[in-house]
Amino acid sequence: MQIKTSEPLTRAQHSMWVGHQHHGSLPFHTAEWLVIEGPLNRELFHQAVTATLTEAKALHWRVVERNGKFYRQDDVPVREPDFIDLSALNEVALNQWLEQHVMPAFDPVQGHLYDYTFVHLDQQRYGMFLRAHHVALDGYAYGLLINRFIDYYQALCHQVDLKNKPFDHYSKFLAEEQQYLDSAQAEADLIFWKQNFSGELAPKKRLKRSLKEPFTQGYRFEDVIDLTTQQQLNTLASELKLPSAMIVMAVFMAYMIKQEDHHQQCFGIPLLSRLGTSALRIPCLTMNIIPLRLDTTGSENLSEIVALLATRFTQIRPYQRCYFEQLRFVLEDFQPFENILFGPVVNWIPFPLPEHFEGCQLKKTTISAGPIEDFDMAISNKLVDGQERLYLAIDGHPELYTVQSLEHYWHDVMAMLKHWLDQPSLCLKDLNIRVPLPK
């Protein structure tokens, strides 16, 4: 089955394509680095990756323009892998290689939407570098692909059937999206956002025009939350009947409210808009980031600030399918080319990958998560020695931050989190930050 070439780009694809035309390819590069240690059958693994990418139809298309409108044409073949031996590189040099190989431009018009490289690192130690234009994949889609690699590999190793169903075809999602756009719910969603984010409630943050590249790739510092703090988070989460990641998100938002001294600040929340759609089984781009205003008074203690965030999620979640790029042009008293719909993006990736498969250990590191305007964060659930742990990542614009400065902010956020966990009755207004953000 082929996607009709007369079908226009989806809302998410069109947004990324327009951004690509304005800002170039680089801001929209995403990349994941997998390290596999153990007795990997490289030939079978290569077959598994090829089979997965062949099955992922939403990766193989190109942008076609007709009469000023943009369409997909899915006649692009599966890309061939690259192979390289980097066993002579130390850790610093290897990280430099990864950063450099994020950079080469993609070409959606030619259908060049992704690349992948198999890397020899040492005896029984291998790497896979997978990068893609954001128009093709989002973070959830990478997880789908990696799990499917493993599914195919295990089936090939044991000569058995695959455990999971194949990916759904992209055309199923296209039909579902059009059905939503034609529905009364789409209009109701738009009304909700206009009522709650227009006029005096319109986001006021402005794009930093003084930057040479206001919209570009950022730096990242990521580390695991220490075990003692994780256990405190788990205890409080159990009491509140909420995920422990929700506590970290709430504390980060409180931290940013203290940084900006702005209780009405809007945060960007990437929500899993795949729920209830066939895109749950399609590696593609469906990402939607919607604004969330925590709207604190400063008098909330830790449990209250977390409960407040949970309430805000409950309020906005029914309207999450309204696409954020559309909102920019319909909110009253919002300047779409000067104002920013939301400040820091606060992301949670709750789906940990397997730590082991077929006698091998797997470790994934996000090298590039796409464009950044200022200062963002992401929380990921990952398995460490069989135990699920939270990793906190801080991303920053390269003209405003360095990896070293992001590390300082990471520790400052953690200091506030630990202090509040130790003294949960303290109010937000009683907490302090130590490392102010650049103005």
From TrEMBL:
GO terms for cellular component: cytoplasm. GO terms for biological process: amino acid activation for nonribosomal peptide biosynthetic process; secondary metabolite biosynthetic process. One of its GO terms (molecular function) is catalytic activity. Residues 7-433 form the Condensation domain. This is Nonribosomal peptide synthetase MxcG.
